[in-house]
Design goal:
It is a single chain. With 330 residues, this protein is α/β, with parallel strands linked by helices. The chain folds into two domains: 1-34; 44-172 and 249-329, 3-Layer(aba) Sandwich (Rossmann fold), CATH 3.40.50.1820. It contains eleven helices and eight strands. The protein has an eight-stranded mixed β-sheet, sandwiched between helices. Helix 5 packs across helix 6. The longest helix has 33 residues, at 2-34. 40% of the residues are buried.
Length: 330
């Protein structure tokens, strides 16, 4: 009888210990899975050494939800214009940085650094330096190219992609801008077409027409904010080298860029954002989204290329809704 009681007691103890160990294992797994890198990233700004110089970064926001890394456009358009998106940091860390050659980062003249590969590896350095292991990746305009290339090379850790006013095919971009030029008043349309044909980019009539194009299809909200003004006044030389002399002429490294065929390989949740009057036209943005399985698309009413400037509340809400849905599924 005593032996039976002892065996029963031992069995109970073994079962209790087993349950305890399993409980601890499950708890540890949950904490590892649900602990977010944002909890260890320090808020503030600093510099990361990359090939060719130093890159400025800033971490804002609070909370433990999965961080969001933001890639500005250009190439060479410092991300001052992304300022309204800092409101997304209510429950997560946000990582902003200026790609080398513009803004608060070192200027460069070495054209061997003005390549897609360089900027992908630069982003890799920023991400690893900050200790990011799981994050969402947002790219606006040229930033969508950079985000796409980074995802294709380093998909690990990326929980979701956000392509805002994307340029994922240069030929498609140029075709769209030509259609938009046709909608300008005759004087402005002819000024752009004549000067582009003659490769004259400093004619006053041309510059005035380009400004008119920008005010319709890039940033419609007037007056332009100081952040938008700073973005354009601090453009890096890598814009002309990598893209070309204007939004309408691609003569640089990105002239033949086209990743439409790679969109179908994306296997993380993806959101495409565009503006109603965007130079990245709604029809093109929707076509990109249709190529990604399960992708979502949002066209911001009344906004142009800089949706976060023209309609900051609407832009941020679309992003919040997308991220919160993914957070719940994590």
């Amino acid at each position: 009888m005593k032996r039976t009681i002892m065996l029963t007691t031992n069995l109970v103890l073994i079962l209790a210990l087993t349950v305890l160990v399993l409980g601890l294992a499950v708890t540890a797994f949950y904490l590892i899975r649900h602990s977010q890198p944002g909890g260890t990233i320090k808020v503030g700004e600093g510099y990361v050494q990359v090939d060719g110089g130093k890159v400025w970064y800033e971490v804002t926001g609070k909370g433990l939800k999965t961080p969001l890394v933001l890639l500005h456009g250009g190439p060479g358009a410092p991300g001052y214009y992304l300022e309204p998106m800092k409101a997304l940091g209510e429950d997560r860390k946000l990582v902003f940085y200026h790609q080398i050659g513009c803004g608060k980062s070192d200027r460069i003249s070495d054209t061997s650094l003005m390549t897609v590969d360089h900027y992908v590896e630069e982003l890799r350095t920023v991400i690893t330096s900050l200790g990011l292991t799981r994050f969402y990746l947002y790219g606006q305009s040229w930033g969508s190219m950079l985000g796409m290339e980074y995802y294709l090379r380093y998909p690990e850790g990326i929980k979701g992609l956000l392509f805002s006013s994307p340029c994922l095919s240069t030929s498609q971009w140029l075709a769209d801008t030509q259609q938009l030029i046709e909608t300008l008043p005759d004087a402005e349309r002819k000024a752009i077409q004549t000067c582009e044909a003659n490769k004259v980019y400093d004619d006053p009539a041309y510059l005035q027409a380009v400004q008119a194009f920008y005010e319709r299809f890039v940033a419609r909200k007037k007056p332009w904010s100081p952040e938008v003004e700073s973005t354009f006044t601090q453009m890096g030389s890598n814009y002309e080298y990598m893209w070309g002399p204007s939004e309408f002429s691609a003569t640089g490294e990105l002239a033949s860029y086209d990743r439409r065929d790679a969109l179908s390989t994306i296997n993380v949740p993806t959101l495409f954002i565009g503006g109603e009057f965007d130079e990245a036209t709604p029809s093109t943005v929707k076509a990109y989204a249709a190529s990604v399985q399960g992708a979502e698309v949002a066209i911001i009413s009344g906004a142009a290329h800089l949706t976060m400037q023209d309609a900051p509340l609407e832009n941020n809400q679309v992003i919040k809704d997308f991220l919160h849905k993914l957070d719940r599924n994590d």
